[in-house]
Records
---
Amino acid sequence: MQTLTFAELGLSAKVQAAVEAAGYTNPTPIQQQAIPVAVTGRDVLGIAQTGTGKTAGFVLPMLCRLETGRARARMPRSLILAPTRELAAQVAQSFEKYGTNHRLNVALLIGGVSFDDQLRKLDRGADVLIATPGRLLDHFQRGKILMTGVEILVIDEADRMLDMGFIPDIEKICKLLPPRRQTLFFSATMPPEIQRLVASFLNDPVRIEVARPATTATTITQKFRFCPSGEDWAKREVLRDLIRSENVKNAIIFCNRKRDVAILLKSLTKHGFNAGALHGDMDQTSRMATLDAFREGKISLLAASDVAARGLDIPDVSHVFNYDVPWASDDYVHRIGRTGRAGKEGASFTLVTHEDSKALRDIEKIIGAPAVWIGEPPTEEDLSFSGKRRRRGAGRGEERGRGREPRRGDRDRRPPRGEGERERREPQHADAQPRREARPQQERPRERRPERHETEQPRERPRPEQRAERPRREEARPQPRRDEPRPQPRNEPARTGGGGGAPVGLGDHVPAFLKKAVRLAPR
Ligand code: AMP
């Protein structure tokens, strides 16, 4: 395919100026193909994932098409549906960025933000309405919004919508819109349900498919570090060493559990790192503030859970650290995909313990190569005791005599995926296989639907993880905190080990930083 410049895509002068101001020199493949079609008003089916530049692929032609005409109160001229609040907010930011030369009213309808503010914006007349499906229907059902003026509909990340159970909502919304409209539809994958949606609601679309952004193999250096102890304090120490020894501009540090995100944040802060956290228990305002601080470089380390970080566009991350090996290999791909974006160099480091053998093998399968170790690699024996309490080097006394506590690798104890303390997962996108089979059909009465918290939650097909009402195992029976000090083995010197957590041997003297409430929002 011939490479086109922005000037050749049919964009207006105002939009081209904004693109130039954004510092983009060449359109990405999805932009090259989608923009010339979209500016003419034709429907587009874009098969592309985050990181390909797809947002500008629909925002830029929309800006051109919205240059003429005016919005009327409560009758938006265009509608963008996104699966999560964060993605909706990111699209809104794109309108700000690329729409600097336009005077368009952009309204954002997402959960967690006051209805009144949103209504005021709608009343002024929205040229662009960006919404999560649930919140949009809420407004519609309250009679606050009329959809009959929508000229352009964008459905972003349709496969994630499917995964989150939003398809019935999407269908309802599509039926409320005028049939004579333009539809720009984006999905990373095309499962049958999505194909059906496309067949029902798109009109002779031009299908555009782009390759995944640069594969991990070429731009991301992936390394693994074996942590013989497997204890959290030891892992934190290893992590700090890695951060200090690497040229880390900014990094995301992934934990499997949100509780560990909070503990890690506290520890990093205590050790003088400029860190923030992102996890599902934070309210929307704190999450956005943390993300903004990270984007602006005010925070250089971001401890995060998969749920909180999925799908977010955080450019220029130099490093990804997996404090925990993710339980699913597709999470590994998503995590490390936060670095090495848009052809840039990136590095990922994964801490591995005895109990991560199976997860490690899965990752090796998915990356198609054996793990590259820094430091002493584990022996076969080290990794052959996965799932059992392992006593490495009987003479070393590292783990002997310690109080038994629940460990991540205790597969018999670990709650099944999606239950227990693990944070509710957002759905897969990109190439990952959605786990739809496991989801029960369950209708929730609209009035009783709890306020969406982590993301816009599925309405009709909640994920099994969302059966959170069930008492979690952790909560059901008291268990020792992982960071509680463990009994000091006899004849073993107290370990102070850098003080990243509760060092062994401190008895009841838990370090103060672990006792203080965790502060999640940046100051
Ligand atoms: P997206 O796939 O829309 O999430 O975009 C991924 C990232 O690529 C965002 O940070 C954009 O700002 C950036 N981007 C979009 N288009 C271009 C372009 N033509 N050149 C360079 N970066 C771009």
Note: Confidence is low (pLDDT under 50) at residues 387-523.
---
Amino acid sequence: MSYPYQIKSLEQYHTDYKKSVDDPEAFWAAVADNFYWKKKWDKVLEWNFTEPKIEWYKGGKLNITENCIDRHLPTMAEKPAIIWEPNNPEERIRTVTYARLHKRVCQFAQVLKNNGVKKGDRVCIYMGMVPELAYAVLGCARIGAIHSVIFGGFSAQSIADRLEDAQAEFIVTCDGAYRGDKIIPLKAVIDDALIGNKLVKKVIVYTRTRMPVSMIKGRDIWWEDEMEFAEGQVEKDGVVSFPAEEMDAEDPLFILYTSGSTGKPKGVVHSVAGYMIWTAYTFVNMFQYNKGDVHFCTADIGWITGHSYIVYGPLAAGATSLMFEGIPTWPNAGRFWDIIGKHKVNILYTAPTAIRSLMSFGDAPLAGKDFSSLKVLGTVGEPINEEAWHWYNENIGNKNCPIVDTWWQTETAGTLISNLAGITPAKPGWATLPLPGVQPIIVDEKGDEITEKDEHGMLKGNLCIKAPWPGVLRTTYGDHERCRVNYFATYPNLYFTGDGAIKDENGNYKITGRVDDVLNISGHRIGTAEVENAINMHSGVVESAVVGYPHDIKGQGIYAYVIYNGHHGDENQRRQDISLTVAKIIGAIAKPDKIQFVSGLPKTRSGKIMRRILRKIAEGETENLGDSSTLLDPEVVNEIKDGKI
Ligand code: PRX
């Protein structure tokens, strides 16, 4: 069964696209009519990009959990909403039906209420990939609390910063999380994050590993006890209910922190209605999801991909979403492929990094695996190189599954540019065409539209979006000016993506990567300034400069140039100390891949580091480093070049 808003042909794509641009209000009202509103909106769209102020479905009242759960109950109560594959393949699979999901979310909403959580309060969630993470997220949405999920790989310091920025008073966590053969002590990390914190009132701890944890009286409470108590409150005579808070369309749904070009991660805020419509609409259309399909998105819910395409988008569409606790290479590099066969997965959505990593194991892990259920493949998070694309197409898709290359960002809620599986043509390495409602434009440094083709017949420049789509971020938490400056001030009246792009004669877009100081490591965003700040926290470091360089598996690696003034250890020990410092300040994902000690950095007379030169050296370029005549000390460039690692 398909959806009323599903695009079913290339021709329809073009007509829908045109409608969405000519009359966005009519177009998005028609899509929104397929959802459950406690009260319809008064106005579909009001906006300006100068403040910015963007309001979709103003005056509308709804609760996203009624759309993701309750409205499916009459027809799909016993259908699986979430299938959970544990880290250890020997452990029991859990199938969470819509009825079960409803009950658990109602119970958890009651737990939150019992503990004093109210609409608008911020709840920080730091958990492994267990179904309870989805219950926690949806339980917050049920009562109108704003969740802020933090990826399990972030350090105590990162959590502390986010807690402070969000002024969060509640935390939901696990004792520990299984990842391959490791156990991550999540509660212990939270304990460290809470040293000195005066705001957090309650920490709810779900038991996953039953590793020893400290439990502070009055603050730390067990998930299981709370849920058991709440069960009696929400279930009467076999009927489960917990009233879903009436939310304004523009009320915030969640905060998700992401890196930018300045030091501190920013809290991207998405609002209830626009986010729901955008994730459901894009989910159905790009994957061509049909009721009953099993959708496997391999992301972690700690990132936007997991929010939008494991939890909200699929559930809003009444889909079956497969959630995997573990990692692709444990117990061996055939794990994803086993999962596909075991659960008869129809749609696989993963990152190019994972594909490249699995590719590097050769053909052996593929032998004997059953890929016959697959219908659609997808990639997200970074550009996909053609070699990986073809490997994915031939080995996993058996040249039989369209591959959607979906380009989007934390700030966009869901996909903006992608082919639609089997409907619009794919082009390896290209995200291709904008989804309805998305109006991309390629501009030069001044913000003028690029109209002149380059020597390959392409338009090339910085990628912006001309008008709002329902999922555009509304603000950055607690600092609207930051939102304006970061996204809406670079070019007047445009949303600036921070990405470079090229456009071919057929209107296809290829994303060429970030044009700001943001790195994309294994599909995860990390700001160079953030890593530099962390490196500079090491007691022996005087100064550092961080750039990205091409990395076979991760897409980009982190290359750090460091001026060091300490006396402890040899160079390798110093490198390890610096890496550990970064892991403590940010998390292991931000550890530099290479650290080169230098005596100076190439700076202009005004003191600005010439990153262009450092980037070229890190990329292995020895000639053509560009004009160095404005450098204070041009000699330092030769030293750095000679010392390259
Ligand atoms: O540079 C683009 C890259 O990832 C950035 C967004 O990162 P994040 O907010 O963490 O969201 C990742 C998941 C959506 C973008 O600015 N990016 C994302 N998807 C693609 C991509 N680059 C090329 N092709 C893609 N399909």
Note: The pocket of adenosine-5'-monophosphate-propyl ester is lined by residues 258, 304-305, 380-383, 405-410, 431, 497-499, 511, 513-514, 520, 525 (CB under 6 Å).
